[in-house]
């Protein structure tokens, strides 16, 4: 599901797995804001920190774990999620990972 508040003003570009990993790599050692959102309900969480590491989960070629130096992080499998580069207005673009079944999304924003 697309963020309802951005649906008409944002530009969503689907990324292949390799492209998404390159965008995450470009954020290494930068402060990011991570949001988990379940659009349509008041359900989610967010945290911020320095993106420290992106690694492929051992035994998989599609699952990744992303770690922040402050201790947070997230994980996902590209078999069940799509990646998008989102631009809205003049601000910086961010990554959005959406589950195929319409479940919650994970957004990775460069901190401003």
How would you describe what is shown here?
With 112 residues, the protein is mainly beta. The chain has a single domain, classed as Hypothetical protein YojF (Protein Yojf, Chain: A, Distorted Sandwich). 9% of the residues lie in helices and 51% in strands. An 8-stranded antiparallel β-sheet has the order 1-6-7-8-2-3-4-5, with helices on one face. A hairpin with a 4-residue loop joins β4 and β5. It is globular, with a radius of gyration of 13 Å.
Lay out the secondary structure.
Layout: E1 10-15, H1 17-26, E2 31-37, E3 44-56, E4 63-68, E5 73-77, E6 81-88, E7 94-99, E8 105-110
Antiparallel strand pairs: 1-6, 2-3, 2-8, 3-4, 4-5, 6-7, 7-8
Question: Summed up, what is this model?
Answer:
With 112 residues, the chain is mainly β. The protein is built from 1 helix and 8 strands, in the order βαβββββββ.
Can you tag this structure with a few keywords?
112 residues; mainly beta; Protein Yojf, Chain: A; 8-stranded antiparallel beta sheet; 1 helix; globular
């Amino acid at each position: 599901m697309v963020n309802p508040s951005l649906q008409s003003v944002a530009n969503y570009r689907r990324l292949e797995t390799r492209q998404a990993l390159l965008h995450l790599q470009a954020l290494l050692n930068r402060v990011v804001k991570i949001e988990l959102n379940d659009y349509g309900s008041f359900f989610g969480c967010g945290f911020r920190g320095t993106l420290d590491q992106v690694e492929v989960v051992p035994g998989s070629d599609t699952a990744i774990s992303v770690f922040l130096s402050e201790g947070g992080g997230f994980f996902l499998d590209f078999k069940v999620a799509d990646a998008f580069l989102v631009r809205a207005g003049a601000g910086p673009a961010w990554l959005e990972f959406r589950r195929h079944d319409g479940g919650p999304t994970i957004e990775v924003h460069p901190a401003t």
